[in-house]
UniProtKB/TrEMBL annotation:
<dbReference type="InterPro" id="IPR004852">
    <property type="entry name" value="Di-haem_cyt_c_peroxidsae"/>
</dbReference>
<dbReference type="GO" id="GO:0009055">
    <property type="term" value="F:electron transfer activity"/>
</dbReference>
<dbReference type="InterPro" id="IPR051395">
    <property type="entry name" value="Cytochrome_c_Peroxidase/MauG"/>
</dbReference>
<protein>
    <submittedName>
        <fullName>Cytochrome c peroxidase</fullName>
    </submittedName>
</protein>
<feature type="binding site" description="covalent">
    <location>
        <position position="81"/>
    </location>
    <ligand>
        <name>heme c 1</name>
    </ligand>
</feature>
<dbReference type="InterPro" id="IPR036909">
    <property type="entry name" value="Cyt_c-like_dom_sf"/>
</dbReference>
<feature type="domain" description="Di-haem cytochrome c peroxidase">
    <location>
        <begin position="59"/>
        <end position="205"/>
    </location>
</feature>
<dbReference type="InterPro" id="IPR026259">
    <property type="entry name" value="MauG/Cytc_peroxidase"/>
</dbReference>
<feature type="binding site" description="covalent">
    <location>
        <position position="223"/>
    </location>
    <ligand>
        <name>heme c 2</name>
    </ligand>
</feature>
<keyword id="KW-0479">Metal-binding</keyword>
<feature type="binding site" description="covalent">
    <location>
        <position position="84"/>
    </location>
    <ligand>
        <name>heme c 1</name>
    </ligand>
</feature>
<feature type="binding site" description="covalent">
    <location>
        <position position="226"/>
    </location>
    <ligand>
        <name>heme c 2</name>
    </ligand>
</feature>
<keyword id="KW-0560">Oxidoreductase</keyword>
<keyword id="KW-0408">Iron</keyword>
<keyword id="KW-0575">Peroxidase</keyword>
<feature type="binding site" description="axial binding residue">
    <location>
        <position position="227"/>
    </location>
    <ligand>
        <name>heme c 2</name>
    </ligand>
</feature>
<keyword id="KW-0732">Signal</keyword>
């Protein structure tokens, strides 16, 4: 944790003078009374449970959106949350292991897409954070990501009068790092994707073609054990056979859920991602090793590695390890996965940068 010194304070003062000459992002004024809101689950989705310590409000969501796109959250004022979570890619980043962080070094894990987080029961690939509020501090303070000192973050935000007002309107204690996390969580909870071609089919508004219907049926037969329900994820952790050796290097980051639980049965288990918008979120897996969906399907068909913790659900072919998928079935599955793309989600201006 960096600490302030006389030299540091002078540096902040000089930085403020220099920054005052630059064109800063405009933070729109908000003077309305706090308007609390309730998220409504789309038809067929499970009920939503919101953290009672962080009630949603229109103002809180909007503040979170502004912060999500603000580079002040990083130590070098060059990296925002959106640097690794682009709306046009369903809030993923399109690279295997990003080096967009402050250090410029490649991360050890792939940036996950941010989709339907209101239903998640754990965050990061290993579930190391239980809620969105605590999750936010990971990337903000990580030396290879945003590398921001929380005291400095508060200091910088307090130099922006409209931020001071917005925080004070929503939170009794104003500009605090904890409230930054709360606002970010409120915004991210609204990132709900439920208007794909498949959803319109479920509502009886349109039809799926024959190939898409075959793909939907194949997903139910071969994939629903993990990619279940309208969320197309069980939000659980599975060893899906991509490795059979689990290194303890980099603080055990490649050991999956075991890193959190220390339960030997969790070795190599990672969180099940949703299939919604999956055709936008390549590359795939916790380390982005598979470049496209064809590589993913072939992995399940013939590339699974056996270990003592590989998920029993993957023994499908007469109790042999693997999920048999023919070339024709791959085409059908891909056709259906395309029907899970939600174009409204990736163009919704409520999720976009306000500046």
């Amino acid at each position: 944790m960096r600490r302030f010194s006389a030299h540091r304070i002078v540096s902040f003062f000089l930085a403020g003078v220099i920054m005052s000459c630059k064109k800063e992002p405009v933070i729109p004024v908000s003077s309305e009374a706090v308007q609390y809101i309730t998220l409504t689950a789309p038809e067929g989705f499970p009920a939503i449970k919101i953290n009672s310590d962080n009630p949603l409000s229109n103002q809180g969501v909007e503040l979170g959106r502004l912060l999500f796109y603000d580079v002040r959250l990083s130590g070098n004022n060059k990296v925002s949350c959106a640097s690794c979570h682009s709306q046009r890619l369903a809030f993923s980043d399109g690279v295997a292991l990003t080096n967009a962080g402050v250090s410029g070094q490649n991360l050890e894990r792939h940036s996950p897409a941010l989709i339907n987080l209101a239903w998640a029961n754990g965050f990061f690939w290993d579930g190391g954070s239980k809620n969105l509020e605590s999750q936010a501090f990971g990337p903000i303070t990580n030396m290879h990501e945003m590398q921001q000192d929380l005291n400095e973050l508060e200091f910088e935000l307090k130099q922006v009068p409209e931020y001071v007002k917005r925080f004070s309107d929503i939170f009794k204690d104003g500009v605090k790092a904890t409230n930054v996390a709360k606002a970010l969580a409120q915004f991210q909870l609204t990132l709900i994707s439920s208007n794909s071609k498949y959803d319109k089919f479920k509502l009886g508004e349109i039809s799926l073609n024959a190939q898409e219907l075959r793909g939907l049926n194949l997903i139910h037969i071969k994939c629903k054990s993990c990619h279940s329900g309208e969320l197309f994820t069980d939000n659980a952790y599975h060893n899906n056979g991509i490795d059979d050796v689990y290194s303890d290097e980099h603080e055990g980051i490649h050991q999956g859920r075991y890193r959190i639980t220390h339960d030997p049965s969790d070795l190599g288990s990672f969180k099940t991602p949703t299939l919604r918008n999956v055709m936008l979120t390549a590359p795939y897996m916790h380390d982005g090793r598979f470049k496209n969906i064809d590589e993913v399907l072939e992995h399940y068909n013939s590339g699974l590695k056996k270990s003592s913790t590989v998920d029993p659900l993957l023994f499908q072919n007469n109790k042999q390890l693997g999920v048999p998928i023919s070339p024709k079935e791959k085409l059908d599955i891909k056709a259906f996965l395309m029907a899970l793309t939600d174009n409204d989600f990736i163009t919704n201006k409520k999720f976009s940068n306000a500046n």
